[in-house]
Amino acid sequence: MRILDDVVPALGRAFFGSVAGGARELDDAHRAIRQGVPTSRRIAFASLRGGTGCSATAAAVATVLARRRSGRVLGVDGAAGLRSFAAYTGADRTDPTPRSDRRDAARTSWDATDGLAVTPSGLHVLRIGDPRLPTRQAAPAEWTDAVEPIARFFDVVVGDWGSRSPFVDLGAVAADAHVVALVTGPDRPAIEEGVAHADAVRRHAPDTRVLVVPVDTTRTGLRAARTAAEWPGHAVHPIPNDPSTTGGRERPTASRIALIQLTAALVDAAVDRRADPRTVPEVAR
Question: 187: helix, coil or strand?
């Protein structure tokens, strides 16, 4: 599915106030997604609890980047579970990626991509883990060992860390990334918890940007998330319910637009070209 091209004809007043205004919004997002990066940029997805849609959202963002950018994009799957980042991206293999001497000592992009799974969008996927222990998440040290030798050969690295303890692993996630997308449920307590931990991450790693991403996995709506998007001093990017991750055939327009805008905001924050990533585009609300 050509995500950005597909949504433009379907835009209407319900999303932007006018088709022309919506097209301009998407054109801005398109430019942000394709913008140049000074060095390899790392975008990390993590959640405080399971069932938030973290892996599906990370996979969607990585797919948009792989389709829209000219340089290579790497997706790193370090979360546990059968419904994995790799599966959501449509990778040709979803089992843990075997270690490779060429990747461990990579000197060229050909070395860096040795043995990696590939998706129809052109995304390269590295899945970290032990096939004998499918429910065990990759430890931060495993992540570093697998990703550090090859990250510089990719324009953007999108990592799915999955559900992580705020007291143990979240600091490692922040230390590894230029920007963290902290995925939460759509209800007010979940969003408030996410915002509180986003503040903690900023204090721990002041150079790392944090966006809170409430995903409507429960199909209860995004009223609380839209309210949170107005809170001063926080970047909150709501994502509507997406039936394509739960058996639906086609991602709805509102969800596609929100994912495109989220991708643009994450790239902007990672590149740090805008003074403040906390302005939420109207379409994401």
Answer: coil
